[in-house]
Design brief:
- It is a single chain.
- 34% of the residues lie in helices and 10% in strands.
- With 289 residues, the chain is α+β, with helices and mostly antiparallel strands.
- The protein has a five-stranded mixed β-sheet. Strands 1-2 form a two-stranded antiparallel ribbon.
- Helix 2 runs antiparallel to helix 3 and helix 5 crosses helix 6.
- The radius of gyration is 25 Å and the shape is globular.
- It starts with 12 loop residues before the first strand and ends with a helix.
Length: 289
């Protein structure tokens, strides 16, 4: 449907057909945002963009913004970001598919992350993931049929002192076990109130968490315990033993900002020119020569 001026009417369906080789169904179709919803998005987008010297620098929080509305980075969300920032949908997609916090498919109201990186793994993270995945019947970035819980294998939650660690909508659950993990997701699916190990006294939804990450605080940043005892052991020992950090070299000359041409060390080899000396066969230096 078009308006008398020839433009597309807000809220009408837009279908994008990407045929698979040999024919087939379209890859994705989408509807534009309803007028009231788009008005709210545009208002929030202007506030986000105003924080940055260049509009395109606002892409990361903009992706969280559309994720807070759709629950994932949808095709219409990509188009909206591109339009607002003056870049192409391909550029938006390149960023959205690089960072794992942006989802390309809908996730659950409570997105559960299980850390399986080195320390968490040897402390039981792999076992937690295996049993939890079997318990829920879903795999990586998949949601339960009721849409309540989804799972993600996370490479690091940056909380090694509490390993093994899980997150729910990016709030921490520390020192987990398979039994505690299964009880946690069962409580979430039954609508029970669940409190993280640190931080706020309750969980927000996935969409609400995405809005916070877009730069719209919910006022709960300072709730609850911030740094647990495990994180403060080093500070405690330093105070008991009288340790102090080395003095800063305050008198050392600081470089000019921006750096002046004379302060830049030239590269040993001009870019694009072969590297001199012996080069091992098969190395990049050898191919350059």
């Amino acid at each position: 449907m078009t308006t008398p001026e020839g433009g597309r009417e807000a809220g009408t369906a837009v279908f994008v057909t990407l045929e698979a080789p040999g024919g087939g169904e379209s890859v994705e179709s989408f509807e534009e945002y309803e007028p009231a919803e788009r008005e709210r998005l545009e208002r929030d987008a202007k506030e986000i963009i105003a924080r940055y010297p260049k509009p395109r620098s606002a892409l990361l929080p903009m992706l969280h913004l559309v994720q807070s509305v759709d629950g994932y980075v949808s095709r219409r969300g990509i188009e909206f970001c591109a339009e607002q920032l003056g870049i192409t949908p391909a550029q938006v997609t390149g960023v959205a598919t690089f960072y794992t916090m942006y989802k390309r498919e809908p996730v659950g109201e409570y997105h559960v992350g299980v850390c399986i990186n080195t320390l968490c793994a040897i402390m039981g993270g792999d076992q937690i993931w295996s049993e939890l995945s079997e318990h829920l019947g879903v795999g990586h970035d998949e949601a339960t049929p009721d849409g309540t819980v989804s799972l993600e294998r996370i490479e690091c939650n940056a909380a090694c002192d509490f390993a093994p660690v899980m997150t729910v909508n990016w709030e921490f659950f520390d020192n987990m076990t398979p039994e505690k993990a299964k009880a946690l997701v069962d409580d979430l699916r039954q609508g029970k109130r669940v409190a993280p190990s640190r931080g706020p006294s309750g969980l927000c939804s996935w969409k609400d968490a995405s809005r916070v990450l877009a730069g719209f605080p919910d006022g709960r940043a300072n709730e609850g315990l911030q740094a647990g005892p495990e994180s403060l052991v080093g500070l405690k020992l330093a105070k008991e033993r009288g340790w102090e950090a080395p003095a800063t070299d305050a008198d050392r000359p600081r470089p000019h900002e921006p750096v002046r041409p004379g302060e830049i060390t030239p590269p040993p080899v001009e870019p694009g020119k072969p590297v001199g000396g012996e080069a091992k066969p098969g190395t990049q230096e050898g191919r350059n020569q």
